[in-house]
Design a protein that fits this description.
The strands form 2 sheets. Strands 1, 2, 3, 4, 5, 8, 9, 10, 11, 12, 13, 14 and 15 form a 13-stranded antiparallel sheet that branches. Strands 6-7 form a two-stranded antiparallel ribbon. The chain is 11% helix and 43% strand. It has one domain (2-287). By secondary structure, it is mainly beta.
Amino acid sequence: MTHLLRTAAALLMVTCSGPLPASGQTSSSSSGTPLFAADVEVERTVVDSTGTVLERLPKLRYRLSQRERSGDVLTEIQFQSTTPFPGRGPLQDPTAGYRVVMSERHGMQVLDPQGRPVSGPATLPPPGPAPTAPATAGTTRSGSSRAEPVAPQAAAANSARPGPEHAPAIGRGSGQPAPELALPRAAAERRRALQARYGSPAGRQQDRERFVRAEGELTEELVVDASTALPLEVNTRHQGRLVYRSSLSYGTLADGRYYRRVQRDESPTDPSNPDSTRHVITTSLTPVAGGGR
């Protein structure tokens, strides 16, 4: 989910960075069967080695929803009005009302506040090479195993202009598998995906299991809840030095499915310095009534 949502945020920021013509056609993803909906708040800070907050960056707020329509899964982000720089003048949020719609079949599309598709760049420039580590392990909606990649430097990049290595074309081309915003209660498929990527657990302490995977100079450590197989903590080390950490907590929907309630991502501004300041991104989800089955 993280990778795809950062793709959407980056796509919208590039689209809103200058005047762009919009077509006259109105697009809507409001029809179909609702699968999940939540209000999302993203808090971004810079902290020192003791955890003291040195800087607070503008928050992001948006409505995240997912619907199934005619065999296609549509994931939508609708940005809400947020003062870009609180206390620094009556600035207006340029992204308020814009929507990014992600389709498994058709890729991504940006819509203006009136629902009209917006013309813009087909792809985003890569932010530079970065090692990756899985934030979650599970299944796509089709049932195939996958582990979702997250760049260790992603939190730092997200403080300015978040972006994936290659963004999909706007409104054309094949899409990606929809992110699993609500996770099934059964843990068997998640555990199979974990073992396919990591092998057997490296250890267990009380109700937590630890998985480890080394690839080149990177070591991935994933701590999961032993009963639900949900990831609780992700640590990525480069040559033994911690370069990315993520902690996750979950809530339960009325139908028993899980959703990612809070995710806290940390990455050092200078990975070579153990006392470096860190970028911290905390993403909180509050489910919306009637937003899912």
